[in-house]
Amino acid sequence: MIGVLALQGGFREHMEVLAMLELEACEVRTREELMRPELIGLIIPGGESTVMLKFIDEFGLRSAICARAQHPEFTMYGTCAGLILLAKEVPNLKGEPLGLLDVTVERNAYGRQLDSFITDFGSFIRAPKITRVGENVEVIMEHEGLPVLVRSGNIWGSTFHPELVGNVEIHRKIF
Ligand code: GLN
Q1: Is 171 designated active site?
Q2: Options 3.10.129.10, 3.40.50.880, 3.90.180.10, 3.30.390.50; which CATH number does 2-174 get?
Q3: In the predicted model, what is the mean pLDDT of the chain?
């Protein structure tokens, strides 16, 4: 069973992709739901990272997410705002990210002209840029010379949304 953090943002589209792949999934809003033993992974969707971070802390989910991430067989995947939350350093985020993925991420980094755009593998919506990749982080996909899908063991993050263009391949690879 794969959990999709459903506090805010685009969690429904991730549920749909998991359904297309015939992977069992459930929405996660509480500590209890996050700690369910049948859960083998968690998706943190896109949305607004500042708002989602506030809810994570208000609902007491931070320590549970971090505890789950310590287990190498528990897979986590953050898209866009989800990646921002998983990152170690986000200079322009109000609040402390979860720090589970050793990358530096700059929010809203594409500037006004190129605010949002679509590629064949996903959409970039007020997307962040990964500006530093730590030693133990693998770059799995690049777009125009920038890392857009990265992985550190069981923790994955993408700056784009595969789920918004019906691309199931990233989820298939990860889960
Ligand atoms: N710009 C948003 C943020 O900084 C991320 C946008 C997204 O998730 N598509 O949180």
Answers
A1: no
A2: 3.40.50.880
A3: 97
